[in-house]
Amino acid sequence: MKRIAALLNLPKTAVDIIVVLRRAKRPLLIKEIAGYLGKSERTVRRYIKILVEKGIVAKDVVVTASKRLAYRYFLPTKEVFERIMRKEIENLAKRIYGTE
What we know:
It is built from 5 helices and 3 strands. By secondary structure, it is an alpha+beta fold. The chain has one domain: Arc Repressor Mutant, subunit A (Orthogonal Bundle). Strands 1-3-2 form a 3-stranded antiparallel sheet. The relative contact order is 0.15.
């Protein structure tokens, strides 16, 4: 996981979120992720945003018990993750070797 984090330039908390989502094997609310990590919801939201923007974490919308809308976060399929990794490796190669 450390190699992936380094390649994707992810902070430790973002990696911790990925680990929590992988272990949970179900979509989680921000509140649940924060509880597992012992971090504030604000902190989790900051890193979830990065992960969603990179496509590493996906989200869907649910109605909570209090009839409010909330996002649940989950890891995409292995194929989607592999596609993201290939793209990141290609971008890294372009930075190192230039565009050819």
